[in-house]
Amino acid sequence: MNNAPVGVLGGTFDPVHNGHLRLAMEMATALEMAHVRLVPCARPPHRGAPTASPGQRAKWIRVAVSIEPRLRLDDRELLRDGPSYTVDTLASMRKEMPDTPLCLIMGRDVFAHLPKWHEWERIFDSAHIVLIDRPDIETQLHPDAQATLDARAVGNMRALHDSLCGLIYTYTPPPLAISASRIRELLANGESPRYLLPTAVLDDIMDAGVYMTCESHPATAANT
């Protein structure tokens, strides 16, 4: 087997920003993926509900990736009832792409708590994990997560092409410090997050008034 893998990058994307998009592009290029799917979560089991609606978040991703064929929106979690369990998402993708390696992309800080996820061990029945390691962030792994990393780690990204699932590959991307929480904070304070996210996405946020408080000043933020 030597098929180009498909990357899977999940999150609330509340809103999608250049940090998400740059990471997805980095994965597509560095790991020679066919494409990377951005999968917005409808009802995250481990955190509060997103501020923006599912429709808004899907729209922003669609706009953001419209000119890049290696990035795609996958809205299956938004269309599915119940909590958005990653294991179910990957299982449904595996049925659609039975001969294609799948790579779930996640940060080391997320992987640290993977054993708390719903049926987490079944993830490896459908996909590899690409572990994003940032040297400036120290993370203590759950003992079961550490044992899983020790047992499944590979040092060559070609292994992701040569098997369908079950491996963990660690990748350290160039630093790019952008967060959705910072963007929401700037908007709530009437300040501009321009250049932190695609212009078309920011323009739609401003038009819809998402994340704005009564103290915000949309006109000022939009024009700075």
From TrEMBL:
Top-rank taxon, per record = Bacteria
Give EC number(s), comma-separated. 2.7.7.18
Q: In which pathway does it act?
A: Cofactor biosynthesis; NAD(+) biosynthesis; deamido-NAD(+) from nicotinate D-ribonucleotide: step 1/1
First-tier enzyme category under EC: transferase
Among InterPro entries, the record links this protein to: Cyt_trans-like, NadD/NMNAT, Rossmann-like_a/b/a_fold
Location of the Cytidyltransferase-like domain:
8-185
Q: Which UniProt keywords apply?
A: ATP-binding, NAD, Nucleotide-binding, Nucleotidyltransferase, Pyridine nucleotide biosynthesis, Transferase
Please give the catalytic activity noted in the UniProt record: nicotinate beta-D-ribonucleotide + ATP + H(+) = deamido-NAD(+) + diphosphate
Output the Gene Ontology terms for molecular function: nicotinate-nucleotide adenylyltransferase activity
Q: What does this protein do?
A: Catalyzes the reversible adenylation of nicotinate mononucleotide (NaMN) to nicotinic acid adenine dinucleotide (NaAD).
What family is this protein classified in?
A: Belongs to the NadD family.
Name by which UniProt lists this protein: Probable nicotinate-nucleotide adenylyltransferase
Query: What organism does the UniProt record list as the source?
Result: Salinisphaera aquimarina
Taxonomic path:
Bacteria, Pseudomonadati, Pseudomonadota, Gammaproteobacteria, Salinisphaerales
